[in-house]
Amino acid sequence: MPNPWLALDAGADPVERMRQVGRAHELFLAGQKQDGPAVRSVVAESWRRSAVALPGPDATAPIELSDDDLETYRAAHPLARVLPIFRDLLGGLAEDGEHLMAVCDAYGRLLWVEGTAKVLRAGERMNFVPGARWDEAHAGTNAPGTALAVDHPLQIFATEHFSRGVQRWTCAAAPIHDPGTGRLLGAIDVTGGDHLANPHSLALVRATALAAEAYLRGHRSAPATAGSVVALGRNEALLTFEGRQWRLGRRHSELLVMLLAHPEGSTGDELAFGVYGDDASPVTVRAELSRLRRALGPELMESRPYRLRAEVEADFRTVTALLEHGRVADALEAYAGPLLPGSDAPGVARLRRLVDDRLRSALLAARDRTLLQTWLHSPWGADDLEVWEAYARLLAPTAPDRPMALTRIRELQVEFGLGPPVSGAPKVARRS
């Protein structure tokens, strides 16, 4: 069976293959059924994603980082540490006058593009330059962007590119992951002529990616862990970091919780929607983020994407982590109340429900009277009909607490309009 990640089968004629795929590409753009040989499924799926995201096949990758912003960002990026490995293993290709070596981050932004002056100028004509955004949503089907999208090494050959301005090139790329967390860091790419469409180029970029991951695994630096956030049971988050403490206002508390929930980083638009929902104002949220970053300092928070630079513990993440390890009693003890209970930010509300639902489900599954009683005696659990019902079912008929539990169940049934009170513990579970 042919390797689906290779652009050409053994013995295939590159020129004929280029013509066939080019014809299929034009038919795809015209919305017609392809009458040529089947396009690789990974390419066809990428074309469909690209067609939805881009205005057309002549779109050009935008430049998002430049000058000092680019220098600062790539100097702090984890892949800067393995740049010597890239140059050692792929530098020969970048110096032969026919290839470009490129490194991008997890968002498809090119961090380094290296090669001879002649081939670099050719790359500039299609914005294949440091700081440009080459994920599928901004540049269409291409090796680094599609490798990030499918999280697999692959080749993209000539007319397989979605954008016409890139179809003179062939490229091979492989994603790179943080060996400690598995987080996608970016991709390594080699771009050149159609002679790259062979098994050797794909094996080379894959081996380079593996070498980079091996280096990172053996040279992991201890992350900063001098921070903690308390956001359960209070409307203003309390952040402690390296001996300093901040009591944040409502919006900054919401933004901090959203950043903690997405340690891989978020765009301004994503954070705006998480805080403001359909009324999101990217300008407003970016202003709030700028103020938050000035307050916390660049050593703790960075932009492009927005994320925390240090490992900061958060009480709501501690609760879910304990539940994942089956430590229900410890999770209940760590739970100080709903997450930012006064917040109506959509992203915070979703997280609040997620934490509460996970904890309640674990309590109900544990069938432990003491744990259920602890929940019911809290301000947030006092009106929880489903937990009252579960608690009553665990009580013996002669238990001293049983009359009180049944009375509370009847009161909540009437309050919630669930019909006339009945004797005994109800069988239909409802949550307040």
Automatic annotation (TrEMBL):
This is GAF domain-containing protein. InterPro entries: GAF, GAF-like_dom_sf, OmpR/PhoB-type_DNA-bd. Residues 243-308 form the OmpR/PhoB-type domain. Pfam families: GAF. The keyword Ligase does not apply. It comes from the Bacteria. Keywords: DNA-binding. It comes from Paractinoplanes hotanensis.
